[in-house]
Amino acid sequence: xxxxxxxxxxxxxxxxxxxxxxxxxxxxxxxxxxxxxxxxxxxxxxxxxxxxxxxxxxxxxxxxxxxxxxxxxxxxxxxxxxxxxxxxxxxxxxxxxx
Length: 98
Description:
This protein is an alpha/beta fold. The protein has a single domain, classed as Sandwich (Hypothetical Protein Aq_1857, Chain: A). The chain is 20% helix and 40% strand. It contains 2 helices and 8 strands. The chain has helices at 12-24, 77-83, and strands at residues 2-3, 9-10, 30-38, 48-56, 65-68, 71-74, 87-91, 94-97. The protein has a 4-stranded mixed β-sheet. A 4-stranded mixed β-sheet has the order 4-3-6-5. A hairpin with a 2-residue loop joins strand 5 (65-68) and strand 6. The longest helix has 13 residues, at 12-24. The radius of gyration is 13 Å and the shape is globular.
């Protein structure tokens, strides 16, 4: 388990999943990104999604970069706020948030 300075909690399953994906990108100048969407109204109200992606590592603001178990991870301020005091895990082939 890892708690980041922004309050997001990564459980071991997510850290392992992130590490596996970063190995595939070794030597690449890209960094992992985590995007979070929480739906507050409409037919999907209460549902939440998180997805892992990649972006170029150049010029990203320091406040958006985190060391997640040895992997550089970028999260937008909106994602950081949405995930504050929530945990992120990887179970049954999916990123889950709670």
